Design the sequence.
């Protein structure tokens, strides 16, 4: 009887420890595991994790390139107000899809963001890239060494990150996203689709907050 | 110098031409460089950190509007050589091309059409946008002074 109780106890402890371990290693953001995910006409299955409340009624799909200076302008001038007024209030969520076309380092930077996603740090890495952007395309700020240095600065597991980036694990994912941009008629970065419950509106370029506000308010 | 300008722009035709060049060039470049958006609403936007690019566009548009009509005046009125149009036109084209080929539709179309060659060209034009615009302004200034000097001499000869 005592032997059975000990075995049962060990099993219970193992299960509890397993659950505790899985909870503690869960990333602070949701990784996109929905391979059929779409927003309006756009397949965002290979895009970023959702920023904000996944059940928000409106989604902003951003097509961008980490070397694009207009994307940098939008990130710094418009996105903060959208995040404050719409994403953090649960009215809107945001998905980033790569249109990495501006230089040789662009696809690699996009792949690196997904290597960071593997460790639950997609949006931290995404933000770090836009905060670190330098004016010159392919000027070296987003080469492999710098991408690894960014990962190091976020305390990512470097062995995992380097093997992911060097192997080109997410090369096809980025290519799929670029094809989505072409299929949906995106002709430059940043390009946006605001997808509401009943309609979808396209915005081209790093437009000011007032434009997004007008469209979002009309959809809410 | 002012006399030469008065001579050219005393004719309303050249004032009109100058206005058309200035307005169309300025609006075109501001749209290409994403200072003005036409869709979904007409809106202008000057993001922080892009003020210098905006000022350079205004200067290039103004100089083009000054130099090109003066050269056309030379050709029409004084029947001068068309070769001397070169400076004004070249300066305007160089100034217009800088920065137009970056993240926007023009850059995407160029890269999609010309592949890696297009990518290299657009990267160059984007990376050196400000220096290229400054070179274009220098060319336009040189064309302006050359045209004024030339008009002074030719007007004296013809008068």
Sequence:
């Amino acid at each position: 009887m005592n032997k059975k109780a000990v075995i049962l106890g060990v099993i219970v402890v193992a299960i509890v420890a397993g659950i505790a371990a899985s909870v503690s290693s869960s990333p602070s953001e949701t990784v996109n595991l929905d391979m059929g995910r779409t927003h309006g006409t756009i397949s965002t299955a290979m895009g970023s994790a959702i920023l904000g409340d996944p059940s928000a009624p409106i989604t902003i799909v951003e097509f961008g390139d980490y070397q694009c200076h207009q994307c940098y302008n939008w990130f710094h001038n418009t996105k903060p107000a959208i995040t404050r007024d719409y994403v953090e209030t649960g009215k809107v969520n945001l998905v980033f899809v790569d249109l990495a076309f501006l230089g040789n380092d662009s696809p690699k930077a996009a792949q690196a963001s997904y290597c960071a996603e593997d460790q639950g740090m997609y949006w931290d890495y995404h933000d770090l890239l836009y905060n670190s952007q330098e004016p010159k395309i392919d000027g070296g700020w987003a080469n492999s060494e710098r991408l690894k240095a960014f990962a190091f600065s976020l305390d990512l597991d470097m062995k995992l990150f380097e093997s992911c980036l060097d192997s080109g694990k997410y090369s096809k994912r980025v290519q799929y996203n670029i094809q989505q941009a072409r299929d949906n008629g995106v002709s430059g970065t940043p390009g946006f689709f605001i997808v509401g419950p009943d309609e979808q509106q396209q915005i081209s370029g790093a437009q000011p907050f007032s434009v997004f506000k007008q469209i979002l308010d009309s959809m809410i | 110098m002012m006399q030469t300008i008065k001579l050219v722009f005393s004719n309303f035709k050249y004032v009109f031409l100058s206005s058309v060049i200035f307005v169309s060039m300025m609006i075109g470049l501001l749209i290409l460089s994403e200072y003005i958006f036409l869709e979904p609403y007409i809106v202008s936007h000057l993001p922080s950190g892009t003020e210098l690019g905006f000022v350079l566009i205004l200067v290039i548009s103004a100089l083009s509007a000054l130099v090109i009509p003066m050269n056309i005046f030379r050709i029409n009125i004084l029947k001068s050589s068309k070769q001397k149009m070169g400076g004004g036109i070249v300066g305007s084209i160089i100034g217009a091309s800088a920065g137009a080929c970056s993240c926007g539709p023009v850059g995407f179309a160029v890269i999609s059409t010309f592949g890696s060659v297009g990518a290299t060209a657009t990267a160059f034009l984007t990376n050196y946008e400000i220096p290229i615009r400054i070179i274009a302004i220098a060319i336009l200034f040189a064309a302006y002074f050359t045209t004024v000097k030339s008009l002074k001499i030719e007007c004296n000869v013809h008068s």
